[in-house]
Amino acid sequence: MEDARHAPTDRAGEGHVSTDVAAVTARIQERGAFLADVVRELESVLVGQRALVDGLLVGLLADGHVLLEGLPGLAKTLTVKSLARTLGGTFRRIQFTPDLLPSDLVGTEVFDAAESTWSVREGPVFANVLLADEINRAPAKVQSALLEAMEERQVSLAGETRALPDPFCVLATQNPVEQEGTYPLPEAQVDRFLLKIVVDYPTRDEERAIVDRMGATRRTPTVRTVARTQDLLAARAVLDDIFVDPVLRDYVVDLVRASRDPAAVGLRDLAGLVQYGASPRASIALVRAARATAFLDGRGFVLPKDVKQVARPVLRHRLTTTFEAEAEGVTSEQVLERLLEAVPVP
After folding, report:
1. Burial 66-85 (b: 16+ CB within 10 A, else e)
2. 3-state secondary structure of 225
3. Cα-Cα end-to-end distance for the chain
4. pLDDT tens-digit readout, 92-135
5. Which fold has domain 1-29+242-346?
6. Among 92, 85, 119, 55, CA closest to 314
7. Which of 67, 105, 162, 246 sits 20 to 30 Å CA-CA off 134?
8. Domains of the chain: which residue ranges?
């Protein structure tokens, strides 16, 4: 019933919506064909983790940055490196450490004594895909430099503003903040991540497959380049044409507003447990991520299940609980689950 209710129709005032959606669906099939090759390559080196792969693809299609959180050894870095390699373009990896400087990220001026001239040496941020490994181990100055790059797609270097390549995407990994030697990311920077994906342990069968696969060779698995950055840009150009029913837009707004005021949806017991809810940026991100999810499914229109599928990764890092919630053992994930149950799905 869900598909039937929200499939676009030629209702009065909407023009030829069905015809338009059919055309968009055809463009999705054409411009998204390369994604099957990308997934196939990733599956050649990864065991399981399909939800992680889909989340990264949603982030890339929606032109957003993605934060991966999980304990060490769960293939976060391998996944990001492999994905970047399948897409071609330029890829850089930087290991975030407490002694990292902003110049290590954005670059610096270098003096040539022989020529008595200064030249600019660009840092690793000048890449199509930047892997910020263990991002929560870097100090505040480095985070500030990265924030400008993530939000403005530019950096300030040698007194000039320099544009970053297009596409530009930060795929960051972090260990949970309770791990020794890590620091909570600034709220302003966390909000710039379109998605936060939590990476969990594999199942027993998946872990056995990993052991068997790695036991067969000592070499690090590699993937082939099967796409170009132009393919990704062409796919992104279709995203804004994917139809989102006004009823679903209302659902997105109601869900985000409920994160700020749980009592408005009947969750009065949560009112004192939420310190900050999601901002309007989250509403925009939720719609765009839902469109990207529909794109991956080959549809020219968004369904409620698309919104619910991306609601957790879009909202989990934008919802801050109070000290009272911490004392009662209530996490932001638990609050989010209650909100998803309370807000009526159209």
Report:
1. bbbbbeeebbbbbbbbbbbb
2. coil
3. 11
4. 999 998 888 888 888 887 866 676 677 778 889 999 999 999 88
5. Helicase, Ruva Protein; domain 3 (1.10.8)
6. 55
7. 162
8. 1-29+242-346
